[in-house]
Amino acid sequence: MGDxxxxxxxxxxxxxxxxxxxxxxxxxxxxxxxxxxxEINIQVAESVRGKDVYIVQPTSAPANSNLMELLIMVDALKxxxxxxxxxxLPYYGYARQDRKAAPRVPISAKLVADMxxxxxxxxxxxxxxxxxxxxxxxxxxxxxxxxxxxxxxxIKEKNLPNPIIASPDIGGVAxxxxxxxxLGLDMVIVDKxxxxxxxxxxxxxxxxxxxxxxxxxxxxxDTAGTTDLPEDENRRLVQHQRWSRQNSRRRQPLVSCRxxxxxxx
Length: 265
Prior knowledge:
Elements: E1 4-8, H1 13-23, E2 30-34, E3 40-44, E4 52-56, H2 63-79, E5 84-89, H3 108-119, E6 123-127, E7 142-145, H4 148-158, E8 163-167, H5 173-183, E9 187-196, E10 199-206, E11 213-221, E12 235-241
Parallel strand pairs: 1-4, 4-5, 5-6, 6-7, 8-9, 8-11, 11-12
Antiparallel strand pairs: 2-3, 9-10
């Protein structure tokens, strides 16, 4: 097994198992229990002294529970003398709160970064952060991996007759432009206003989409409000599906792919 070990939280055990099988390394054992009041109790069942430890635990919904489970497991491993602790977070919760967009609001993405460092995380591996600057919230190495290559190959395989790339908001322009440049396609931008969380209103579309096969590029889908259109009006490519429970009526299938998009949520 060497000098490194892989542990799994309860957020996505299927993904942890796939990683374990791909690396041909068994998942290390840890007991994760919850008391009747919701408190989490973790016991590491093997020695980790002097080992490089990896924890696979996305902080997707329920974000608070999964985040606390990660922090408690990190603390248990640190107190068990692990050499290093790498948090593998395919989805980084609270990433949307990465700046002060209004007076008297928190920067929760920074707070989460501080909590991980204080708990004992020595490195973070994540996929397609909502905003790249979140890497700067940490004083430890952060590996922000990208899934764009998979989507680009998929779009090419579809052979759409008249495709165009669309960014769902101003903040996603750089992400959409990357696809447009690599595919040699034009791009449009949606001018979107968000009055409150999980509710978006489209104000204008910068560019023309008449007669086009629109490919909407986004990093996550939650309520699906941004893409609340009939199924034949657009194609949606997102890295993270994190459906809110109250919006289950919108759980239409995304563009079918050969790889499980929801495996990284």
